[in-house]
Amino acid sequence: MVEALARRMARGIAAPLSLGDDDREVLEFASKLLVVCVLDVTVILAVACLLRVVPQVVTAYLTVVVLKSFAGGAHASRVGPCLVTGILVYSAIGLLARAAAPLGQGAAWTGYTTVAVVAVFAFLRHAPAPPPHKPIKIQARRKALRTGSLLALASVLAASLVWLLRPFTEPGAFWAALLGMVWQSLILFPATQRLFSRL
Amino acid sequence: MKRLFLLVLSSMLTLLALANVASASIYTSYQPELPAKLR
User: Which residues in chain A (22-61) have CB-CB distances under 8 A to chain B?
Assistant: First the structure.
């Protein structure tokens, strides 16, 4: 369905502008990205609304957006499994973050330290991890993405630390950011990428 | 007017495609295959 819609959008734009096949393929690719993103955000937010975990899911989603843009990670090979995975993962993160919210500062510090260690290890060892059909061929680009991913992780860890140090007003969102980092670290590992490529 | 709208739309979509090429991957779980022109 997504492919058909994207193809239709691309043809609808390319034909009146008399664009060639190469340009139409680029438009089709971009239309797919757009449709998948809109679908992903809409479905995940709708489920988050039903479960009443919108702030937690939005925080986790934004954390992953920032980190994954630089670091990459596992991808499903089709749209359906991608959507189902997104719904399951972000709903679980939202519910877990809400459940963890009553925990005190001690647990928050322990969680923060553990997640920081795991995330730094995963990023140093595996980032950037592009999808198999989008390999990084230029070494300078790989280096730039690696630097970007480490800076993005440092920024997210610093923001979480500031959140932890100031009066702890929204612990659910804090835990959601931590769980978002856990998810992003997990999808960097080759085993997770192999698992996702079969979906 | 329609042509101008389509030109703007096609430019925005091309920018989106290039932004995706520049990043490591899209943030959703599904990354479409890159077209030959962008490889």
Answer: 22-23, 25-34, 36-37, 40
Cα–Cα–Cα angle for A130, A136, A141, nearest 5°? 110
DSSP string across A77-145: SSHHHHHHHHHHHHHHHHHHHHHHTTS-HHHHHHHHHHHHHHHHHHHHHH--B--TTS----HHHHHHH
Q: What is the ipTM of this complex?
A: 0.86
Using CA atoms, how far residue B12 sits from A111, A119, A150, in Å, is 41, 34, 29
Choice between A137 and A49, residue whose per-residue pLDDT is larger: A49
Provide the token pair at A105: 């500062």
Nearest-by-Cβ selection for B28 from A19, A37, A128: A37
Q: Which of A13, A75, A127 sits opposite B10 (nearest CB)?
A: A13
Is pTM beyond 0.80 here? yes
Taking the C-alpha atoms of residue A63 and residue A55, their distance in angstroms, rounded to an integer, is 12
